[in-house]
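Lecture 7, part 2: worked example. A protein chain together with benzoic acid.
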Amino acid sequence: MSTRIGDEAPDFTAETTEGTISFHQWLGDSWGVLFSHPRDFTPVCTTELGAVARLKPEFDKRNTKVLALSVDPVDAHGKWASDIAETQGTAPNFPLIGDEDKKVADLYDMIHPNASDTATVRSVFVIGPDKKIKLNLTYPASTGRSFSEILRVIDSLQLTAKHKVATPADWKQGEDVIITKAVSDEEAEERFPGFTTVKPYLRYTKQPTG
Ligand code: BEZ
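Predicted complex, written out as C-alpha cells:
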C-alpha cells in the first residue's frame, strides 16, 4: 500500500529490539520517524544506525521518537548492535523492528521489487502527533541518508504547524521564513511587523518564536 502526505500512518504491532510495539500507542503525542534499512550487517546501514544513535538527543529535543526497520529478525539486530557500537561509537538507542514477514514493509510500501524483492529500500516517514504522514522520502540502498536533513525538515514541520509561514530552500533554524499567501498584507502587519516584500507573493519575516 502506498502512503502519501496527509494520509493516516498505517498502524501496526511489531516485535522490536525493545519489545512489542503498537505503533500509534507507542507514538502517543510525540512526532515519529519510521525508517527502513535494507539488511543487517551491511556497511551503509551500520553507519546510518550509528548516525541516528548519535543524533538521538536532537530527536528527543524535538519530541520525536525514532523507529528503525529491516526484514531481518530481532535477534540479528541485537547481535549487530555491538558491531555498531564498536565501529560508530554508539549502539542503537532506539527500537529496531524485526519485520521478517514484511508486514510493516508492505504496509508502508518499503519494498520496491525492481530494486530488490527481498530487502527494503531506504524509506523515511515523518509522522505528526495527529498520526498523519508529514514527509515521505525514498533513497536507494547504495546511498546513506542525511539525518541532519530529517531534523531540518522536522524543524520546518513543527514551525509551520504553529505559524502561518513556510520555509525557503535550504532554510535552517533561526533564518528568515516566508509568509504564506493565505495571510493578507494587513494580517501580516499585525502578525509579522517589519516584514519585507520582495514580490507580492514573496514576503519574508524573522522566524517566529513561541
Ligand atoms: C549497505 O547498507 O551497505 C547496503 C545494503 C544493501 C544494499 C547495498 C548496500
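The chain has a mean pLDDT of 97. The CA atoms of residues 23 and 189 lie 42 Å apart. Keep this in mind for problem set question 3.
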